[in-house]
Amino acid sequence: MAAGLGFKDFTTGEVLTAADVDGYLMQGIWVFASAAARDAAVTSPQEGNFAFLKDTNTTTYYTGSAWTNLDTTGMVNPMTTTGDMIYSSSGSTPARLGLGTANQQLRVNAGATAPEWFTPAAGGGGKVLQVVNATYSTIATSTSATFADTGLTASITPSSATSKVLVFANINGNQRDGGSTGDMYVKLKLLRGATDLIEFENRQGIFSSATTLGTGGTGTTYLDSPSTTSSTTYKVQFARGDGNGNIRVQSDTSTSTITLMEIGA
Fold this sequence. Notes:
Largest sheet: 4 strands, mixed
Distance between the termini: 65 Å
Number of helices: 2
């Protein structure tokens, strides 16, 4: 078989020779039993010649200096469904990634070995998915250094176990009763269920006079990771810090608030 001669624009009436047919017209993808058979038949290959080898099911092309495989594996198309994708699996073997479902996203798997489809959390990462708010205005009084409930509480049911909950708690009217003696202040604590999250306090209510009320308000912000899709309760407790006598939260005219925000992962 003659080597390909490239491209030629034949004119009307021109007579084709055997060499023309072999060199110009037979420049499709040649088929040979093996590389040895190809090399024996095509002794002077030209850049751009293509040849298919039956023994390895590979397509080769001539670069101008050597025959090179068009693909390295004799790839058989693994795709079976519209929307399928091909990726290189172990050993550079072509593999099929089936079409995902609506709104799924593509990522690398945990082992960093292959792509995979996954369903993102509802609403997307970093977005506020829901908000819960509660208020409480009943006065709570204590003489103890042991934490007790203020009455301020709220519950939220996360839509995903990977969501976080951003808690805003504001306790108004933290003070000591006028009949108390000694310096005191109000200690506060945020809890998720029975789990302590953070302590905070109001030292604006420190007074040594037995007839003076220390007044003010105290707030905190906390980003929690409850890791659940069950209903989760957050609450605030209070206790006396130092001194002796009565402390109280929520004065006659104040209202405390707690706000829970679910943040998508």
